[in-house]
Amino acid sequence: MPSLEINVECPVHDSFRVQQVAGMFDVPLAEKLEQRFAVELPGDDEPWQVGLIVGPSGSGKSTVASQYYGERLYRGAEWPDDRAVIDCFGELPVRQVVELLTAVGFSSPPSWVKPYRVLSCGERFRCDLARALGRSCESRVSSSEIEVGSEQLVARSSELVTPVIAFDEFTSVVDRNVARACSMAIAKGIRRGSIGCRFVAVTCHYDVAEWLEADWVLDMATGELQRRRLRRPAIELEIHRCGVAPWRLFARHHYLSGSLTPGARCYLATWQGEPVTFCATLPVITKRNHRRFTRIVTLPDYQGMGIGMRVVAAVAELHRVEGLRINVTSSHPALIRHCERSSLWRTVNVKKSGASPSGSKRFPSYRSSTGRAVVSFEFVGAEN
Predict the structure, then answer these.
(1) Same domain for 206 and 301
(2) What domain range is 178 assigned to?
(3) Which of 15, 181, 288, 311 might form a disulfide with 277, Cβ 3.0–4.6 angstroms?
(4) How many domains does one find in the chain?
(5) Which residues pair with 164 in a beta bridge?
(6) Which of 308, 330, 312, 333 lies closest to 377 in space, CA to CA?
(7) 25-68 pLDDT, tens digit each
(8) The domain spanning residue 187 has which CATH number?
(9) Domain ends where: 205, 227, 249?
């Protein structure tokens, strides 16, 4: 376990007002002001995945993180005003960028094609988080390029497989709902291995610790390092059958269309009284007692927490109890990945180029998936 001792000093520039303040508040003056930090941090070679450096403003969080993590500490970056955020991840393939954005709970493709400057504060924070994590992808690319080198380079490349990324001022600029959602989303991504790095949050907000499920916490207020795997609070949702009116709140966040077919069976999920997820189902045109999900949207502030697909599964179970079969068809990588991993869903169809154009001719009002790769899953429930 590395021990870190840091001495920070700055000169005192004498002036009349400095002397006044010193006299008014009995502040001792010297040529230099000094502060010392002595802490312990887990080493890179130790088995951990998520860490947290927390403490009040001025307690030395950023100083310690900067000294220990160096260039691995993300402090923000410039975003061009004339480019979409999806274009601002260097040479990373678009699928990898989508994985990063989804992993931090930014799952709204309509916002991916906008410039950073027009996004909300919460969306900007998620973009910064994704960009920081993108460094781990760049490290893996670099390591693969030098594996054929000398033994020394090969050894170095193996170290880069699971790099450490630290993020300063974590959740400092967002409301606490976004903070909880982002913390939970990134913890899930790290632990499932979809991001490919370890993560250290540096923040003054103690409330993110349990949502990050941090393996260790360095509290700069006391200087103590605690090794503990915190458990996040339970999320209890209420699902209501509703009309189409709540859709207005969710429509602009859907990745295909803001329209909703009249006669759709609609459901609204709330958390602590606040709307979080909307979904709707329609009959399958050519099959009796068979329905499909036509809209699934979780509001941006709550994306990344796993709420959306839990609501979908609950609504699907309601349909199954009625004796109805129900499918979900999507091109969204996060939804496809979830259903592939879940025992509640069974893959029934994969179309690399989407639906046949003939279906659109027979049913002009039906929005087909022609030209988009889609996967269809049927809900089978927990009993199968």
Answers:
(1) no
(2) 41-227
(3) 311
(4) 2
(5) 198
(6) 330
(7) 888 887 677 778 889 999 888 889 999 999 999 899 999 999 99
(8) 3.40.50.300
(9) 227
The 3-state secondary structure of the chain, one letter per residue: CCEEEEEEEEECCCCHHHHHHHHHHCCCCCCEEEEEEEEECCCCCCCCCEEEEECCCCCCHHHHHHHHHHHHEECCCCCCCCCEHHHCCCCCCHHHHHHHHHHCCCCCHHHHCCEHHHCCHHHHHHHHHHHHHHHHHHHHHHHHHHCCCCHHHHHHHHHCCCCEEEECCCCCCCCHHHHHHHHHHHHHHHHHCCCCCEEEEEECCHHHHHHHCCCEEEECCCCEEEECCCCCCCCCEEEEEECCCCHHHHHHHCCCCCCCCCCCEEEEEEECCEEEEEEEEEECCCCCCEEEEEEEEECHHHCCCCHHHHHHHHHHHHHHHCCCEEEEEECCHHHHHHHHHCCCEEEEEEECCCCCHHHHHHCCCCCCCCCCCEEEEEECCCCC
Most distant CA pair in the chain, distance: 87
Provide mean pLDDT across the span 236-258.
Answer: 88
Q: Which amino acid, 70?
A: G
| 39 φ/ψ sector (left φ>0, alpha ψ -120 to 50, else beta) | beta
Phi, psi of 265 (to 5 degrees): -90, 115
pLDDT (mean) for 356-382: 64
Residue 329 identity (one-letter amino acid): T
In a domain, 134, yes or no: yes
Domain CATH for 333: 3.40.630.30
Is 187 contained in some domain? yes
Q: What is the pLDDT of residues 171-220, one digit of tens each?
A: 998 988 889 999 999 998 898 887 888 999 999 999 999 999 999 999 99
| Token reading at 67 | 């000294």
* Spatial separation of the C-alpha atoms in residues 269 and 278, rounded to whole Å: 6
- Do 247 and 140 share a structural domain? no
